[in-house]
Amino acid sequence: MANDECLLCRVSDADAYFGRRRVWEDEHWRLSVVLHGAVTGFAHLEPHRHIPFITDLDGPEAATLGAALARVTAVMRAATGADKVYVYVFGDHVPHLHFNLAPHRPGDALVGGPGLIQPDAEESDPTAHKAAATAIEHALAAPSSAD
Length: 147
Prior knowledge:
The structure is a single chain. The chain has 147 residues and is of the alpha+beta class. It has a single domain (11-141), classed as HIT-like (HIT family, subunit A), CATH 3.30.428.10. Helices cover 31% and strands 22% of the residues. It has 3 helices and 7 strands. The chain has a 5-stranded antiparallel sheet, with helices on both faces. Strands 6-7 form a two-stranded antiparallel ribbon. The protein is globular.
């Protein structure tokens, strides 16, 4: 069930606002890759249904979260050449559950801890953002062994 007051429930508005592209979705989840910023391949995983915070997670989204998160982060890691994908949830600014997914490579802008991104980090090349989004999208469109 959508909430008309929630930006993430208005998916096209959210994609435009955050400058991102939806690259995958299933019955319960969708993944959008942000096409700007210092972290190439940075993405949001969010449920279709309006779930305000992680503490409200229930139903089929709760039952499928692990598999969805494992699939998209593995694909993101491979598609971006990252060593790992950081997963974090804050939710203070947008009360619709969403997982921030940040691929990390040695020497990139991610520093971990409270700042996460170096204050003087330069934007990654827009073509790198688009290439990462396309690689993730194509990999997730292919049937997985679980399908």
